Amino acid sequence: MDLSKAVRIDEDNPSIKRVKERCINCGRCKTICKDVVGINYDEKCKEAVCINCGQCILNCPVGALVPKYDYKKVLDYLHDTEKIVTISIAPAVRTSIGEGFGLDAGTFLEKELVGALKEVGFDYVFDVTFGADMTVMEEAHELVNRLKNNKTLPMFTSCCPSWVKYLEIYHPDKLNHLSTVKSPIGIQSSIINTYFLKMMDIPKDKIINVVVAPCTAKKFEIRRTEMGMDICLTTSELVLLLKESGIDITKVEPKEFDSLLSKGSGAGLIFGRSGGVMESILRCVNYIITGEDKITGFLSLEENEKSGTIKKTTVNIGPYKLRVVSVQGMKNIEEVLKDLDNYDFIEVMNCPLGCVSGGGQVLNAINKMDEINKKRALSLEEDDKNNSIRFCYKNPDVIDIYKTYLDYPNSPKALKLIHTNFKDRSSILREKSL
């Protein structure tokens, strides 16, 4: 079968699968990978150079590329009476899941989603925005420490797994610029496997942790040994799981997230769109330095007119004039990497508008994607504006976990449990052995 124009997908890719009989060898997937995402490679590499983002899935006109499905495993665990199954929901999922049931893009379904998952049989349903709030707390303090000590600036965000893997492959010499804080999903699983299990007196071998994310790259991320999440489902997989279980999300009884790791702040919710991590961390940095609550307004800034994917400004916080930039796409980060001395803090997301357009989201017509992604992003922004808690440090669950378990942000215990490290993956670029 001729796949000469198709992007290369290895069999052991944890995120993406090619349905070969559907492929028409049109070359669109390779064009997206090279010219839009920004992956530069040739066929001589010993492995397929893939950052697992799934943009090829969203742009395949015939459905020949799909997420690697794991939802059948989850259904098996739900039928295993010996297992306790938790599920955590990433922010952007709640603005897309409704599309799989005929609702408009951007329809915000939070309590309905919790109700549906309870009806399917999950024992505990948690909100990843709690993990996002924890990420903000840790990362904001890390940034302040770097600023005070003038240490390894600029600091890069590290919550986008495609971006982290890209840096590991193409720029391993810059890995020390990455924040060492785990992603929200990584923190969520670490807290579940320690704090939550201890509080609930649950043996570790009894628990199965599932996360639902808009992102196919999270399937790769959870394979990192320190992450502790068992299975990652995409939004589109969750639609299949619910439908095969006879659940219509529009007809379930709405329910609240389970306590201990319950609903996060508005700051955690806007992690699901580009610029949201920047805004959330700047809110927290401002409080650490000045003791004041402030919405910085970063999300309302216009993107660079030329690319539409770079947003930069200077933010005055106490004695600091922070030069910050938010970047979408690996092609655009290459431009920023040439001028690192001009920045103090850099947010990077691989996908257009961030997680709302992740490769695991519900599929839509290719020519409608920009419009749909904007609706999803706006939905998250609106919920942040209407949220009674808009700052991570005011989340009572976050306050409690530091008081009773982690001591304080960047404490020795926090550094051990919810921080991580990265590895040089540049060997992927080496040629195949003859």
Write the layout of secondary structure elements.
Elements: E1 16-18, H1 28-37, H2 55-59, E2 65-67, H3 71-78, E3 84-89, H4 111-120, E4 124-127, H5 128-149, E5 155-156, H6 161-170, H7 184-200, E6 207-213, H8 217-221, E7 231-234, H9 235-244, H10 266-269, H11 276-290, E8 310-317, E9 320-328, H12 330-337, E10 345-349, H13 369-386, H14 396-406, H15 412-418
Parallel strand pairs: 3-4, 3-6, 5-10, 6-7, 9-10
Antiparallel strand pairs: 1-2, 8-9
Helix pairs in contact: 5-7, 5-11
What is the CATH T-level topology of the largest domain? Fe-only Hydrogenase (Larger Subunit), Chain L, domain 3
**Largest sheet composition:** 4 strands, parallel
The helix-and-strand class reads alpha/beta
Number of structural units classed as domains: 3
Show unreliable segments. none
Instruction: Please identify, by name, the CATH architecture of the largest domain.
Output: 3-Layer(aba) Sandwich
> How many DSSP H or I helices?
15
CATH superfamily annotation of the largest domain: Fe-only Hydrogenase (Larger Subunit), Chain L, domain 3
Name the overall outline.
globular
Number of strands: 10
Average pLDDT: 91
Taking the alpha carbons of the first and last residues, their distance comes to 24 Å
